Amino acid sequence: MATHPTASWQAMQDGNTFYRRQQLYSVPGKLPELSDYIVAGCQYGGPIALMRDSTKLLALGRVTPVVTKAQIQVFSPAGEGLLLFSWDQGKIIKFGWSLDERLVVLNEEGVYRVYDLQGEYQQFSLGTDAADTGVIDARIYGNGLVALTSSLTLLEVKGWEGARPLTLANPGLSEPPHAWSIIPPDLNISRHVEVLLSTETTIFTVDNLENVDQRLSRGPFTHISPSPNGKFLALLTFTGTLWVVSSDFQRNITEFETTGIPEAEGSVQQLEWCGNDALIVTWTNLVLLVGPSGETIPYHYGSSTFAVTELDGVRVMSTDVCDLIQKVPASTLSVFRPGSTSASAILYDAWESFNRKSPKADENVRSIRPDLAKAVDECIDAAGREWEPYWQRRLLNAAKFGRGFLDFYNPTDFVNMGQTLKVLNAVRFYEVGIPLTYTQYDYASPSHLIGRLTSRNMHLLALRISSFLSLKPDAVLKHWACAKIMKSRAASSGADASGDDEVCSAIVEKFEQLGGADVSYAEIAKKAWEVGRGGLATKLLDHENKGSDQVPLLLEMKEDKLALVKAVDSGDTDLVYYVLLHLYKRLPLGSFFKLLEDGGPRLAPANRLLEVYAREQNREMLRDFYYSDDRRVESAILCMEEATWMKEPNAKISSIKAAHKFFSEDKDRSFEAKMMDDYGRLLSAQHQLDMENDGRISSFGLSLNETIRLCLVNGMARKADKLKSDFKIPDKRFWYIKLKALTEIRDFEGLDAFAKSKRSPIGYEPFVRHLIEKGYAKDAIAYVARCDSPKRADLYADCGEWPLAGKECKDRGDKTKLEELRKRCPNSMLARELDQILSSMK
């Protein structure tokens, strides 16, 4: 039978406050003498890291494990070795733990590594300035670190992803501080890290904006320790006075003289908080608990100790034992305090009476009926605060007993507590070695615990807990797959195809079996690629559903064609463009276009998308693309398009000649080749014409008809005739052009001479029509007589010469036409003249 919970209780002097020391693990012979080592402990029941203290002599021949000074060893709280690695990066200045149980090691050159519990690490630097000046000290907290350089400046790093260090406000130090500490950002109202520096008799508080002197007179201080909630500070002076103040230095909480402790030997080793309302002061073999009012409880150990502040207490490690010292929780105190008359104590007593079949059970339940629901809740909560499963079961059974007397009670808390205790008992087992309390578990969340188990490669336990708590197993499966790849790497040095197939099928089968549908195969494939398993990475990517996850890794792996095929198959045009542009920048031009050409119909959409993009954004790429693909017609059309917006004559002529060359290389495009040849000759003629006229006229880029018209208008008839001859312009078109040009400049004499020069190939009716259209009806009359006789009457009428129209009808004897003209004539005077002509024809 487990010892009663009150067996480890010790009361403060006031008799109302109790603290207990719970032995978590017995670790005789598993740990070295801690006083010979520099130790860093991880919160939330995490491991401890040890490095030999080079300033101390180490006795040989001990039976305890010996860690050389060039090594760091990590132990679980149960004393089990988790990790051992050598350090070869210069002098270590500081090491500590992140929130996710990764060990951060910083050297004097500002280089820091972040190790997981498998020995894998990422390396970062504080920058060249820190490397040049050197780092002399640092403080590491859950989500970052603050480093003190040799120039006495402070550098802050946020997160563990290699962020750029930020320089905090100038602390104004002339020498290194006597002691210093930090308050993490999540415990500050400003949400910025705050550095506390003990110098001379005062303390400076430094953040990213300012340096404030708190104007204290009791320093200097040897230890500065902020409480877990960041509201209080514990300060230890050189004279041995322990002084507790509020973190803003406005309130004095308590004072205590550590020099009057008879059992204490030597100087104070550590000053740590036990929760938020008590302190732990440690010497070589003594741990002293100091209460809020200066009351003390001593705890003696057979060897040196190391204390780790926890959220709800303090964990004390020694070479023999791992203990948890904490204030007895209120619910536990209510149930088990001797002489307690609380409802929860009476309920527990009633349950014990019920088990003994005593009628006192019913009497006790009746007496607390109004407070029975509260009593049940306290028993449930007290069960969560107990370490031994025996007392957990008893308290839950008492709660279950009391619940039976309630008409309405929500059992959710009861069920959740039962699940939580099963999980906590599983991870507290010494082979796992995570002594997590209910308060810590509730604060850190189950998913955080799952992550800690996977970092230890305890995948089976993590999966079972995930399933038990109805959590998605994705994170566990992903870590398991990566670990399996790492483990199989050594077994298959050649990484043959059969080995890759076996590992891939095992991973896929496990995912399908355990429901890891949301796990990204791409992330696992990336791990395989990083360890040199390219074939395995490719096979894993075949199972990835999201093209956006597949493609970037394939590109990184230089699987260019496969990446492009996956991008095309995804139907995501943005992804296809991403691959195309990435390959265009990385590959030689010939290799890039050959890749597209060899893709055949499967990569046809990529070809089309590249063409669309290049047409809008990069025509040089489009030109190279057409040329490499031997697409002559498209190349010619591209040259023609470019020529349309070119202003410089020689460039435009060259572009048209290039189009002619491309068309001429295709036997089916002879017509287009001829057109480009003619157009090129026309542009050359126009350019020459403009140069001969010193820019007075601008014919470049005009059509052939417009160019001839421009020559005629500007009195260059010979040039117009030469263009007609060179480009074999038909006579009809030339006559039309010259007719309009001479009319435009009102050269009616020239027009008459042109009409008489030879027989008009277009007849003379166009002359009449055009002159009438332009408002020169009187000049058009001279050309009517040269027109065909049936049309003369109407043409005369259009020119406004109605009498001549009537005479023409009379000469032809066309009485019908004359009558028609009579009806159309505009006034009565002209009508009488036409009537006279008409009467003379009778």
Provide key terms for this protein.
46% helix, five-stranded antiparallel beta sheet, transport, alpha+beta, Vps16_C, 842 residues, actin binding, Vps16_N, 18% strand, Probable vacuolar protein sorting-associated protein 16 homolog
Compact overview of the structure:
The protein is an alpha+beta fold and 842 residues long. Helices cover 46% and strands 18% of the residues.
Write the topology of this structure:
Layout: E1 9-11, E2 18-26, E3 37-41, E4 48-52, E5 71-75, E6 81-86, E7 92-97, E8 103-107, E9 111-115, E10 121-125, H1 128-133, E11 135-141, E12 144-149, E13 154-158, E14 166-167, E15 179-183, E16 194-199, E17 202-206, E18 211-213, E19 221-226, E20 232-237, E21 241-246, E22 252-257, E23 270-273, E24 279-282, E25 286-290, E26 296-300, E27 305-310, E28 313-318, E29 321-327, H2 330-336, H3 343-355, H4 360-367, H5 372-385, H6 389-403, H7 412-428, H8 438-444, H9 446-455, H10 459-468, H11 474-491, H12 497-514, H13 521-530, H14 534-541, H15 547-556, H16 560-570, H17 573-586, H18 589-598, H19 604-617, H20 619-628, H21 632-644, H22 649-664, H23 670-692, H24 704-713, H25 717-726, H26 731-744, H27 748-757, H28 765-773, H29 777-784, H30 789-799, H31 802-812, H32 815-824, H33 828-840
Antiparallel strand pairs: 1-2, 2-29, 3-4, 4-5, 5-6, 7-8, 8-9, 9-10, 11-12, 12-13, 13-14, 15-16, 16-17, 17-18, 19-20, 20-21, 21-22, 23-24, 24-25, 25-26, 27-28, 28-29
Helix pairs in contact: 2-3, 2-5, 3-4, 3-5, 3-6, 5-6, 5-7, 6-7, 9-10, 9-11, 11-12, 11-13, 12-14, 13-14, 15-16, 15-17, 16-17, 17-19, 19-20, 20-21, 21-22, 22-23, 24-25, 24-26, 26-28, 28-29, 29-30, 30-31, 31-32, 31-33, 32-33
